[in-house]
Amino acid sequence: VTTIDHNDFVGRIAIGRVHARIQLEPKWYLAALNLVQDQLGEDALEHEVFRNDPIALAKALRSLAKMISFDMMTVLDAYAEDALVRVVRSQEEALRELSAPVIEVWDDILVIPLIGTMDTRRAQEATEAILAGVVEKRARVVIIDITGLPVMDTSTANHLMKTVRAVELLGAGCIVTGLRAAIAQTIVSLGIDASSLTT
User: Fold this and answer.
1) How far is 160 from 166, CA to CA, in rounded Å?
2) By the 8 A CB rule, do 164 and 195 touch?
3) d(CA 168, CA 140)
4) pLDDT for 28-87, tens place per residue?
5) Which residues contact 180 (CB under 8 A, 6 or more apart)?
6) What count of Cα atoms within 13 Å lies in the side-chain half-sphere of residue 26?
7) Residue 33 vs residues 8, 30, 37, 134: alpha-carbon distances, Å
8) pLDDT tens profile 187-199
9) What is the rounded distance in angstroms from the CA atom of residue 108 to the CA atom of residue 47?
10) Whole-prediction pTM
11) Partners of 141 in the beta sheet?
12) Distances (CA, A) of 62 to 82, 83, 197
C-alpha cells in the first residue's frame, strides 16, 4: 500500500496550479488520470502476486482508487483556486480601470469620473492615472467628477486636494464637479483648506 507524504501533496497542488496557468482544461487531466488508473488496474490483475490472492488484489485496487481520488481532488482543488484568484485579479484590474478612467472630451480637456469608495491605494492609482493623462494628452483643463463617490473621509479629501495641486503644477487647470452638499459639509467640518479648489 502506497502512502502519501507532504511532498506528494505539494507536488499535486503544483500540478493543479500549472494546469490553471497554462489554461489546460480539467477534462484532459481527468482523461489522463483515467488512463493511468485503467493501466495500473490491468497491471495489478496480471501481476503474479495477485493471481491467487483475490483479497490482496481487492486491497490493492482499493488503494489505487484512493490514490487516484486523492490525486484528482487535490489537483482540481488547486486548479480551481488558482483559476479563481486569476479571475478575481482580472476583475479587480478592470474595476480599477473603470473606477478612474481618463476621458478626453475635447482637445486639451480631460474628464475623470471617480466612482465607488476610495481607499488610499485607489486614490493613489487615480492620481497617477490623472497625472499621466495630463502629460500624455497635454491637457490644459482637467475636470474631476466626484458624483460617483458615496462618501469622502479625511484621507480621500486630502488626496483630492493634493491631486488638484499636482495637476496645477503640471500647468493644467483643475475643476472639481459633482460636489454634493453632504461632501461639501464633510470637507468644511474636517477643516480642509479648499480655498484653492475650483468647483
Assistant:
1) 10
2) no
3) 9
4) 888 888 888 888 888 888 888 887 888 888 888 888 888 888 888 888 888 888 878 887
5) 147
6) 15
7) 16, 5, 6, 55
8) 788 787 777 788 8
9) 80
10) 0.52
11) 109, 173
12) 30, 31, 75
31/46 Cα distance (integer angstroms): 23
End-to-end alpha carbon distance in the chain: 76
Question: Which percentage of the chain shows pLDDT scores above 70?
Answer: 94
φ and ψ at residue 198, rounded to 5 degrees: -95, 125
Q: At residue 28, what are phi and psi to the nearest 5 degrees?
A: -70, -40
- The grid coordinates of residue 56 equal 490482496
Cell numbers placing 81: 483556486
pLDDT of residue 94: 65
Of 66, 67, 70, 50, nearest to 58 by C-alpha is 50
Q: Are 111 and 103 in contact (CB under 8 A)?
A: yes
Q: How far, in Å, are 136, 138, 187 from residue 176 at the CA level?
A: 21, 19, 13
Q: Is 93 exposed, middle or buried (0-12, 13-18, 19+ CB in 10 A)?
A: exposed
In sequence order, what are the residues at sequence separation of 6 or more whose Cβ sits closer than 8 angstroms to the Cβ of residue 45? Answer: 57
Could you tell me the sign of the dihedral formed by the alpha carbons of 106, 164, 174, 152, in that order?
Answer: positive
The residue ranges of DSSP E strands in 116-166, in sequence order, are 141-148
